[in-house]
Amino acid sequence: MATKFSFITMGCPKNLVDSDNLTEKLIGSGLSNLDNPEDADILLINTCGFIEDAKKESIEEILKLAEIKKKCQRVKVSKDKSKRLPASAGSLSSASRLRRPEANDTLTLCNSDTFPRLIVFGCLAKRYKDELIKEIPEIDAMFGVAEEDKIVEYCRRIQGSKGHLLGDSPEAKRVRGSEFQGAHSPIHLYEPWQFTNSPIHPFTSYTYLKIAEGCSRKCAYCIIPSIRGGYKSAAPEEILKKAEQHITAGAKELILIAQDTAIYGKEFKGYDISNLLRDLCSISGDFWIRLLYAYPASITDRLLNVIAEEKKICKYLDIPLQHSEDRILRLMKRGGSRKGYLNLIRKIRSAIPDIALRTTFIVGFPSETEDEFKSMLDFIEEAQFDRLGAFKYSNEEGTAAAKLAGQLPDTVKNKRIAQIMRHQERISFENNRKLQGMRFRAVIDELNNGAAIARLYSHAPDIDGVVIIDDCEMRIAECGIKSKTRSARGESAEAENPKSEILRAGDFVTVEITDTYDYDLKGKIVK
What we know:
This protein has about 525 residues and is α/β, with parallel strands linked by helices. The protein folds into four domains: about 5-175, Rossmann fold (3-Layer(aba) Sandwich); about 205-315, Transcription Regulator spoIIAA (2-Layer Sandwich); about 320-435, Transcription Regulator spoIIAA (2-Layer Sandwich), CATH 3.30.750.200; about 440-525, CATH 2.40.50.140. The chain is built from 15 helices and 23 strands. The strands form six sheets. The protein has a six-stranded mixed β-sheet, with helices on both faces. It has a six-stranded parallel β-sheet with strand order 7-10-11-12-13-14. Strand 13, helix 14 and strand 14 (about 385-390) form a beta-alpha-beta unit.
């Protein structure tokens, strides 16, 4: 019997892609994946250490896995949690306790021959390796980032220690017997093997493509460059091969991610994000392409032209501005200005009239005044973003911003983030109302008890709204009637629903918007 592993992934989509790649390698090495961690021989967790809340969530999940390990081993341990995780270190955020990230070395303990083994890796593990080992001794092995091969080798040694034949599981044989289609089935409908507990969304229509690793910018509040190193674009042929695998497996949306997708290819001569997008669009199939995390200074006319011209690319841009006021932007070391950002927004909307724009802002940055915050609200009102997210500033040790004077209390941050989201809620509702009665092309993400969750080209999964389709018939009866819709381009187009076809996650349908909410829409499938 193959050694069994169970996986938990914390944090951003980039972590999900890392977990997906690692899962593929583990299965290819003969291990078997399980949903239930209590039945696993190996417990893996990919951690996030970006901001305070993310660190807390990762630690909570590690402790849950530690409890599962103890339960499985029937080891009597103290119930005094205060000794395990002092209040000052509950999120591993006490600057006096922590060292700054160093080389991406591996710490492997292998203290015990008992099972399950607990493996912790990723951003939090790299930042706080020694502290995690000290506070949570149940951890058997610790790895940093981009160490998938070392993790696989460690798991193979565990496999060997249990007397299993490496690479001899049925899953591994099937994978080796055909071209591997990716560990994540976007709609869970393909063979040769059914995958459970995928680290990415196993029943949905989309998949993430990480096109670069790391970041070379020096934003004052961000720890990512210290954890993941400088920006490095992935090889185009690797991205295209993975994209083709996902499309063959049934994905209907490829979501490109990196710390800055717009600067992709900066190391290459004559090949940039525009070339990559064109090449992705040339892949055969009916699917969308979405671009996330485009740094404002990296957006070029060439990129905008490609988005405007290519039908497969969603007319959607995620541009994290982080702030609008010049003084704060300088302190953030972001570059840019209020005037420059407004000009960029006008330029984008002129080039792509139906574009859906998303951005994020940080509230409560050190020394941010009430007047500067109100001015940011005015900026948001003027810009009329289709989508907006906001985060409270998190004071991260090892960053330039942590040393700035004027650190604001949580009470101020909480008040401001509530204000900014109320402001955007109204803008979003007013924008949504304009869509009532209109027809769009949509992709089905989920089906449950006669209802469906779908998205338009203007909806990125997990972070934007959705279209709720109530009383959705599971069989589209005698459709075959062409209707005017909005395509991924946002433009009017002819669409045709399949005739007498069972509705499944990943299907494209035509929906008519029947009602609107603050962020979500309600619709019906039309013939």
